[in-house]
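Design a sequence for this backbone.
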């Protein structure tokens, strides 16, 4: 009987803690966040880059939030503005602005969440025909 009471006390002593990681109304470069028109669609993906790998220039027509699970990633806009994000940090990606990421000092893993709309791409590469419609 004593064991049952002890286990019950441990069960009720547990807490749920929600730690806010990021709250912002702008992207990392200070630019605006704009939700796309249309039927909402939320997507998540994991991005993995080996050390030294640089992504192609691309843009996001929809709001995108990244959480760096592992490593460090340098993000560079096409105009040369750069920022470094480290493991455990969150970042709101720039919208409709061409940029690229590079794994620095080891491999990188980033979970990305897109607040998009059906039939609107989450990512458009600079050399895609759609870039003229979605990227500045």
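Sequence:
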């Amino acid at each position: 009987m004593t064991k049952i009471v002890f286990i019950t006390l441990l069960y009720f002593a547990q807490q749920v803690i929600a730690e806010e990681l990021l709250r912002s109304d702008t992207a990392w470069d200070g630019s605006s966040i704009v939700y796309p028109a249309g039927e909402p669609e939320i997507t998540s993906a994991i991005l993995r880059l080996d050390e030294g790998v640089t992504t192609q220039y691309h843009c996001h027509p929809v709001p995108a939030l990244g959480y760096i699970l592992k490593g460090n990633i340098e993000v560079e806009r096409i105009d040369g503005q750069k920022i470094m994000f480290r493991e455990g940090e969150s970042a709101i990606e720039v919208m409709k602005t061409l940029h690229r990421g590079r794994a620095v000092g080891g491999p990188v893993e980033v979970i990305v969440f897109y607040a998009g709309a059906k039939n609107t791409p989450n990512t458009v590469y600079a050399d895609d025909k759609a870039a003229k419609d979605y990227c500045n």
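The chain has a mean pLDDT of 92.
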